[in-house]
Amino acid sequence: xxxxxxxxxxxxxxxxxxxxxxxxxxxxxxxxxxxxxxxxxxxxxxxxxxxxxxxxxxxxxxxxxxxxxxxxxxxxxxxxxxxxxxxxxxxxxxxxxxxxxxxxxxxxxxxxxxxxxxxxxxxxxxxxxxxxxxxxxxxxxxxxxxxxxxxxxxxxxxxxxxxxxxxxxxxxxxxxxxxxxxxxxxxxxxxxxxxxxxxxxxxxxxxxxxxxxxxxxxxxxxxxxxxxxxxxxxxxxxxxxxxxxxxxxxxxxxxxxxxxxxxxxxxxxxxxxxxxxxxxxxxxxxxxxxxxxxxxxxxxxxxxxxxxxxxxxxxxxxxxxxxxxxxxxxxxxxxxxxxxxxxxxxxxxx
Length: 350
Ligand code: ADP
Ligand code: MG
Fold this sequence. Notes:
transmembrane transporter activity; Transp-assoc_OB_typ2; binds magnesium ion; ATP binding; binds adenosine-5'-diphosphate; 5-stranded antiparallel β-sheet; ATP hydrolysis activity; 24% helix; 6-stranded mixed β-sheet; AAA+_ATPase; single chain; alpha+beta; 2 domains
C-alpha cells in the first residue's frame, strides 16, 4: 500500500467545484510534484492533504491511517509556503523551535534538534538572525528547517521558490531535493514551472481544471504526453497543421509529404489534423533517420548562450528549434533559405 493516498477527492467552494475527482498514490520517500497553471487546484489538493481544507468527498490516508477527518496538527505534516511565512518577531532558532515547543519537547532536546536542523540547511552561523536580516533564499531554508524539525511523515511545499531570483531558485531546488533524499521524506511539491518540476521530481502530476491529466516520471510526461494539454504545457512544442492523404499513414505537412509510423487517428471530416514535434527532433543537419526535409526561411536567430534558437517559416508553418553553440559555429542568417530535417517517427498527433 502506498504511503500517501488520495482517493476520488472532490472539493467544492459554494457552487464552484475546483477539485473534480483526484486520485494519487505516493510511495514512501517519493518526491512528487503537482504541476499546472494558476487556478487548477494544486494548492487546494495540498491543503486537503494537510487538513486545512476538508474534502467535499473522497478519502486521504497517510501510512495506512485514514486522516480525512483529522485536524492538521494530528497529521504529522510539515508545510512550506511561497514566502514570508516565518514569524517576524522570532529569530531563526526561535522559528525552527516553534513546532517542537508545541509538541512538548524539552529544552535540551529542542536545542539539539534546532542545531541539527541548522546544520542540515547550512545556516548554523545565522541562528540569532531575524527574518528581515536575511535573503529570501535563506528565509525559505529556515522555513524548510522549521517544517522538518518535528519529524513529519510527509513534507508539503507550495511554490516555495516562486518568489526568488532565477539563480537562487535553481540552487535552492537542488538543495531541497538533496535534503529530501537524505531524510527519505515523502514529499509533495507544488509548482507552475515545468522546468522546475522536470528537474527534481520522481513523478509529476500534471493538473488541469481540478483533475490529474497525467501522472508519470518526467521522461514519460515529456516523451509520451497523454493529452493535448500535457503536450502543450510541458516543454516547448512545434504544432504543425497537416492533411491526411489517400493512404491512412500519409500526410502533407508544410508542403512536404510525410509517411507516419502509425495510421492517423485524429483527422477531422475534411482530413485536417495537428502534428507535434519537439524542438530537439529538428536540426539543420541531415542525418540517418531524419527522413523529412522542411524547406523554408529563417525568421529569427536568438543567441541564448549554450544554444542558439532558430525560428523558421516552412510552407506557412512556424517551427522553432535549438542548435548547440560552439566557438566555430556559424549560425544561419535571418532571411536565408534553410532546410530543417526531422524524423517522421518523432512526430505525433495531438
Ligand atoms: P492553484 O494553487 O493551482 O493556483 P487553487 O487550488 O489555489 O489553485 O485554486 C483553485 C480554484 O479554487 C481557484 O479558482 C480559486 O479561486 C478557488 N478557491 C481556492 N480556495 C478557495 C476558497 N477558500 N474559497 C473559494 N474559492 C477558492
Ligand atoms: Mg496555488
